[in-house]
Amino acid sequence: MDREMFHSCCSLVKMPSRRSWLQYQPSHFVDYMERATAYSKFFRNYLLPNQPCMFSKKFTEDWNCRKHWVTEEGKPNFQRLLQEFDDTPVPVANCNAKEYNANPKQIMPFKEFIQYWREYIQNGHSSPKGCLYLKDWHMQRMFPEHNAYKTPVYFSSDWLNEYWDTIEVDDYRFVYMGPKGSWTPFHADVFRSYSWSANICGRKKWLLYPPGQEEFLRDCHGNLAYDVTATVLKDKGQFPHFEEACQPLEIIQEAGEIIFVPSGWHHQVYNLEDTISINHNWLNGCNLDIMWQFLQEELSSVQKEIEEWRDTMDTWHQHCQVIMKSCTGIDYVEFASFLKTIANNRISFLTSCPGSGSASSCQSCLSETLSALGPHHSAFDLQRVVHVLENMLSNEDFKRLEPSALSFKPDDLLQEIREAVHTIV
Predict the structure, then answer these.
(1) What is the distance between the alpha carbons of residues 111 and 374, in angstroms, rounded to a whole number?
(2) No. of H helices and E strands in the chain?
(3) How far apart are CA 184 and CA 227, in angstroms?
(4) How far apart are CA 299 and CA 322, in angstroms?
């Protein structure tokens, strides 16, 4: 990102209003990237406007997983996969069962899942065990030495995994493996993050709805639809607003292709063949506003649920934060810590020589990423942190947090950011 693009983008990033989202009607076509293009083009045309696109198989052809996990016929290479993962415990969902608008999961040895998968294929893609789907497996975290793939530069400004890598608690990088017929129910991604998904082999069908359209896909109790293709949605008594929803954007993703799913786009996904995919959830300065709005809406929902206890509990507001974190995985304190970590990394990058001294492999990788994106990109990131942090400081629920809950003083961080940005702009 250069100086001109920095100033342009800082003025362009604005949170779309809920009304404009509800009025949005998607095209039934999606842009297709046949070959490598400038990062700035992806940034301007897809990240900032929050629009989906597809990347051709050329972007994954050098990945080790595409060379080793797939047979010459384009099928999953079970023998090679067993050699690599054998008894590794993996999370497996049952697509035939419903549990709170998702599929219940169990942990099983990888080789047991592969045995099931082989039998499922031999039995005409059916089994008395149901349709099992290995999903949300943190393969990269468990086997970093495999170098199974390399994140494309377009998705490298990834604050979500940067933060969780820094605190060494979790990550949002996953492997999915499923037989023909496995699927994922209707949902939006964690924290309303972006996602990218690369098919290592097999084909998927995606049904995507732009932000706001999910409001028409709720039942009379306000619950989100589990399956947007189910005939029950045509029952006006149960789904009174279904007819007001736009038609979904339907995309067929071929082997090797990567799909970019924008922030807050609800989607439902089917494996049309035996399929393996790599999936990342990620966010950055372009959709930070959307995450912050999502957290405010989640807290508001919790507050409405336990409103009757408000006057009987001195710690009611703190309890709301605890409940929100148990439901979403984050509360206001951790969100503030998240912003501080992202800001500190960029301040350090702008005020010191990247890569100097000893550094962990995680820090080294981050330094390489920030260097590749350039100092103006870090300045843009810091401006986005300032924007949201200032918004948080004026938020009544954030003001109610115990000062001791935060590990830093927001005003001090804002001053540090402004000084760092001033050196580059």
Answers:
(1) 44
(2) 15, 13
(3) 9
(4) 10
| Segment (H or E) for 135 | strand 132-137
Inter-residue long-range contacts of 163-170, CB under 8 Å, 24+ positions, other chains counted: 163/338, 163/341, 163/342, 165/362, 165/366, 166/341, 166/345, 166/362, 167/341
* Parts of the chain with a pLDDT under 70: 1-28, 353-363, 425
Q: Say whether domain 22-282 belongs to CATH 2.60.120.650.
A: yes
Q: Alpha-carbon Rg of the chain, whole angstroms?
A: 22
Closest CA to 50 of 264, 239, 233, 230: 264
Find the largest Cα–Cα distance for the chain: 66
Identify the pLDDT of residue 29: 76
DSSP assignment letter at 43? I
**pLDDT of amino acid 231:** 97
Q: What is the pLDDT of residue 11?
A: 59
In angstroms, the Cα distances linking 84 to 91, 145, 155, 178 are 17, 11, 27, 18
Dihedral sign, Cα of residue 222, residue 225, residue 228, residue 229: negative
CA 174 to chain centre: 10
pLDDT, residue 28, reads: 57
Pairing state between β 31-33 and 53-55: parallel
pLDDT of residue 168: 86
Can you give the pTM of this predicted structure? Answer: 0.92
**pLDDT of the residue at 101:** 85
Q: How many CB atoms lie within 10 A of CB 324?
A: 21
Q: Residue 356 has what pLDDT? A: 42
* pLDDT given at position 422: 86
Write down the pLDDT at residue 4. 64
DSSP 218: B
Which pair of structure tokens corresponds to residue 8? 């342009």
Q: How far is CA 137 from CA 36, 107, 173, 359, 374, in A?
A: 29, 10, 8, 28, 32
CB count, 10 Å around CB of 145? Answer: 5
Rounded to the nearest 10 degrees, the angle between the axes of helix 361-373 and helix 332-351 is 70
Q: What are phi and psi for residue 208, nearest 5 degrees?
A: -120, 140
The C-alpha atoms of residue 362 and residue 386 are separated, in whole angstroms, by 25
- Could you give the residue range(s) of every CATH 2.60.120.650 domain in the chain? 22-282
Tokens of 80: 């090679």
Residue 193 φ/ψ, nearest 5 degrees: -75, 165
Where residue 374 falls (left for φ over 0; alpha for ψ -120 to 50; beta otherwise) is left
Q: Per-residue pLDDT tens for 135-164?
A: 999 999 999 999 999 999 999 999 999 999
Q: How far apart are CA 249 and CA 268, in angstroms?
A: 11
